[in-house]
């Protein structure tokens, strides 16, 4: 159902929802950017419509709502293990089409790739997603090439105009709350062209893996891991056992974000490390995003949000790397 309401009524709806839900959306953190005079747009809790940043792309994705940066899985003593409690409220997340497609990748990894991850599932099952449309493409986006510029798998779509709020609801709760509102035909905004496009080859020969292409990233990449942390489909983590100072035999186990690009990620027993070379790490990441995941799940892992290009301090472009790989494959097939 489509509805047209004013902003005051939307904020009243937010107030009602906050009794049972925590609402997350892209939010501007003034002075929270890379430099003291720059802002950061990332996900945070909001309570009013005005707090949501609709006009700019968020620097970070929504994934930390379902995959907290540091998440306590369970507590332990010598004799007892107690699983951590889930959040007291359900969640509502505002996100764009590329991120909604990223949700599908996360679901595949955590719910359909062997045993179900119970910690992800308990958050996922109690989260609702509201789509934010894109009237124009943003810098470094290539969602059209990845087929993620359109999405219909949402609980609701929202568009804010100068005077009103337009909502397309697929959620009974919203339908009930907006039952007396003005009916309105609402079609989600989406882009049909980006400034950047990529072409991913159907198959990648071994010669590309062995190419000197990757040497460039050995010298340029500084192994900061930023590209992984902003990516909505990167899911690598490590485990940390935290022992309490007042009782060294009690503590908690935490799941903490990790990065395949940083030093130490591939360390193994005996002091050995796979992929010490940063070019090899870049090759691993790229091939995982555009080849390995597709072979296993029949869809590309990358959704073309462009955040990795936005955040890289060395101006390494993931989209440019994809096109370099494609050029090598074409050369190989001549």
From TrEMBL:
The protein's name in its UniProt record: Anaerobic sulfite reductase subunit A
Protein's UniProt keywords contain Membrane: no
Database matches in NCBIfam families: sulfite_red_A (TIGR02910)
Domain 4Fe-4S ferredoxin-type: 210-242, 293-321
Transmembrane helix as UniProt keyword: no
SUPFAM superfamilies referenced in this protein's UniProt entry, alphabetically: alpha-helical ferredoxin
Keywords: Iron, Iron-sulfur, Metal-binding
GO molecular function term, any single one: metal ion binding
